[in-house]
Design brief:
Layout lengths: L13 H23 L4 H49 L4 E12 L2 E8 L4 E8 L9 E5 L15 E4 L4 E6 L3 H5 L1 H13 L1
Parallel strand pairs: 3-5
Antiparallel strand pairs: 1-2, 1-4, 2-3, 4-6
Helix pairs in contact: 1-2, 2-4
Length: 193
């Protein structure tokens, strides 16, 4: 099962914390053996080796999770840069966030969306689009004037045509996009590529 790429990976891990605790316990036992009984050096060395190996495995787990998180942030920033570029090139656009995905069909998807500008939540039929959309995706669309009218009632179901879809990005990554510290990170990573 694939994980949702719109959600930032966690850097903390229950396994890493557990391994660190076991490593500390092994190290404490080894020190106690060395101080209490100088003749028990073989057992003390075994506990010391176990502590080092467990700490090494915990460090490796943390390193992998940190790299995944950093890669996710970089990719999410690139998505938002593309999103902003597309938005600046179009005349009339709005943003909707996919809150839930109800049913997938080859021709489209039933979803629950939130109109970000208005905070209005409604069901929508979204035609099949070229990008893979997940919960937490912010979609840049051109609203259909036949369905959405100023001061008019909201439709029961909004029909999002594939031609009205322009870009997507992760809702969870928006704070990183707005933070100047991460924008410099994105520019540094794109210049290396």
């Amino acid at each position: 099962m694939r994980t949702n790429p719109m959600i930032k990976p966690q850097t903390s891990s229950g396994w890493a914390v557990t391994l660190i605790v076991f490593s500390c316990v092994c190290l404490a036992i080894a020190i106690r053996l060395f101080l209490g009984q100088p003749s028990a050096s073989a057992a003390g060395l075994a506990f010391t080796a176990a502590a080092i190996v467990l700490a090494g495995v915990a460090t490796a787990i943390w390193f992998v999770k940190t790299r995944r998180t950093r890669a996710w942030i970089t990719h999410a920033l690139q998505q938002w840069e593309h999103f902003a570029t597309v938005k600046s090139q179009l005349r009339v656009t709005t943003e909707v966030t996919v809150l839930d995905i109800h049913a997938l069909d080859p021709t489209g998807t039933w979803v629950t969306i939130r109109w970000d500008k208005f905070g209005y939540v409604q069901r929508a039929w979204m035609e099949a689009i070229p990008d893979e959309i997940w919960r937490g995706s912010v979609l840049l669309i051109s609203p259909d004037p036949a369905q959405i009218q100023v001061h008019g009632p909201w439709p029961n179901v909004y029909y999002l045509l594939a031609a009205d879809y322009h870009a997507y990005a992760s809702e969870e990554a928006l704070p990183y996009f707005r933070d100047p510290k991460y924008q410099s990170l994105d520019r540094a990573n794109t210049s290396k590529a």
